[in-house]
Amino acid sequence: MITRPPLSLKARAIGYLSRREHSRVELARKLAPHAESAEKVEALLDALERENWLSNTRFVDSLVHRRASRYGAARVLQEAKTHKLGTEQIQDLQERLRETEVERAREVWRKRFGEPPDSAEARAKQIRFMMARGFSRAVIGKVIRGAEDIDD
Q1: Tell me, which fold does domain 7-54 have in CATH?
Q2: Whole-number Cα distances in Å, 14 to 22, 62, 77, 96, 131
Q3: If pLDDT is split at 50, 70 and 90, which confidence band does 3 have?
Q4: How would DSSP label each residue in 70-100?
Q5: What residue ranges carry the coiled-coil annotation (predicted)?
Q6: Which of 60, 58, 30, 63 is nearest to 45 (CA)?
Q7: Domain ranges of the chain
Q8: How does 9-29 read in b/e, with b if 16+ C-beta sit within 10 Å?
Q9: Residue 99 to residue 101: CA distance in whole angstroms
């Protein structure tokens, strides 16, 4: 059996980045167990950013693409904050999500329920579901009231 030499740190990083976008913090965490020192990881991350392999801006775009259709702004922002993005990137993400929040909530609600609640229990269930997805009470109220208005 032929044994392969272990992957270099850069090869591992490019492998991760070829599968999906990663934030700088996330990639550093994944590479740390394979590096000789934290300085080597930081130097590699700096080089990857200079070569445009690593970009927190692209990561934010990827996060929106993967999560926004299923989750509310609160949930997506919570995930983004775990990646220690810059304040400007978080604010930009928040604005982008707020602009489409009602439409996204309406689509999530429509896929899951499709019809207005017929009882207080059903209404509470729909509200709990939407809140767990990260939508605000104001947005949830608009979506459910809008559905009830259409039904009348």
Answers
A1: Arc Repressor Mutant, subunit A (1.10.10)
A2: 10, 17, 26, 29, 37
A3: confident
A4: TS-HHHHHHHHHTTT--HHHHHHHHHHHHHH
A5: 83-110
A6: 30
A7: 7-54
A8: beebbbebbeeebbbbeebbe
A9: 6
Q: Are 13 and 40 in contact (CB under 8 A)?
A: no
Radius of gyration of the chain (CA): 21
CA distances (Å), 49 to each of 18, 22, 97, 126, in order? 14, 12, 26, 43
Q: How far apart are CA 20 and CA 39, in angstroms?
A: 24
17-59 pLDDT, tens per residue?
999 999 999 999 999 999 999 999 999 999 999 999 999 999 9
- For 90, other C-beta atoms within 10 Å of its C-beta total 16
Sequence-distant (6+) residues with CB within 8 A of 98 are: 73
Q: Read off the tokens for 22.
A: 């990663």
* pLDDT band for position 147 (cuts 50, 70, 90): low
The tens digit of pLDDT for each residue in 110-132 reads: 999 988 889 999 999 999 999 99
